[in-house]
Design a protein that fits this description.
The protein is an all-alpha fold and about 210 residues long. It contains seven helices and no strands. Helix 3 packs antiparallel against helix 6, helix 4 packs across helix 7 and helix 6 packs antiparallel against helix 7. The longest helix is centred in the N-terminal third of the chain and has 29 residues. The two termini are about 25 Å apart.
Length: about 210
């Protein structure tokens, strides 16, 4: 929507201002370094906004603890696994809100057995070994040691999530729902990559 576009532009202007403040005399609007710093800052601003929106919604529906559990598991796993990325602030915020909502509602409706919880962890580990980090236009293509390190971190995050499922039994179904959603997302990304050919996008360089 137009509101989402305005917020996106505001975030970019704010991140550009911060880049100029950080780099000072070394600021160069067309350098790769500046673009990377700018993108990272914009991502942090976007994440803070999504965090505040999710917390606000969870307070309204009295599901703050479930939302915080979701955030913890996602931070331990998805940032290493990767996944689908929306191209607009509005699309990304709506998708994030939907994922949290599905996980929280699913965690309340379904009560997964220990076998199902274990299976979701093992399937996630398998997906990580085979495909992580998932391909994305928003992140570089990792190879060699970097790729292996990301896989190790993601598996470590999954092991922590498994421990959390045991320690916090009342939230184990919510954790399982998050992992199942990540598995579905990974399958969709892999299928899209195998079905659709790589499209080299031309266009303007991202100027900060």
């Amino acid at each position: 929507g137009s509101g989402g576009g305005r917020i996106e532009n505001l975030n970019k202007r704010l991140s550009r201002y911060l880049v100029k403040a950080i780099e000072g005399d070394e600021y160069d609007s067309e350098s790769d370094r500046t673009a990377k710093i700018g993108y990272s800052l914009q991502k942090i601003i976007d994440d803070i906004e999504k965090f505040l929106i999710i917390i606000l919604i969870s307070i309204i529906f009295d599901t703050t603890k479930e939302a915080l559990v979701c955030m913890l598991v996602i931070s331990l796993t998805r940032k290493f696994m990767g996944g689908m990325h929306m191209t607009t602030w509005f699309g990304c915020t709506m998708m994030t809100t939907m994922v949290y909502s599905l996980a929280i509602i699913g965690g309340k409706i379904f009560h997964f057995s220990l076998l199902m919880q274990s299976a979701s962890i093992l399937l996630c580990v398998l997906m990580v070994i085979l495909y992580a980090p998932l391909p994305s236009e928003q992140r570089p293509k990792y190879i060699g040691k970097k790729r292996i390190n990301i896989k190790i971190r993601c598996i470590a995050g999954l092991m922590v999530s498994a421990v959390l499922s045991v320690i916090m039994k009342s939230y184990s179904s919510t954790i399982t729902c998050i992992l199942l959603l990540e598995i579905i997302e990974a399958i969709l990304v892999v299928c899209k990559k195998s079905i659709l050919p790589d499209i080299k996008k031309g266009g303007e360089k991202n100027v900060w």
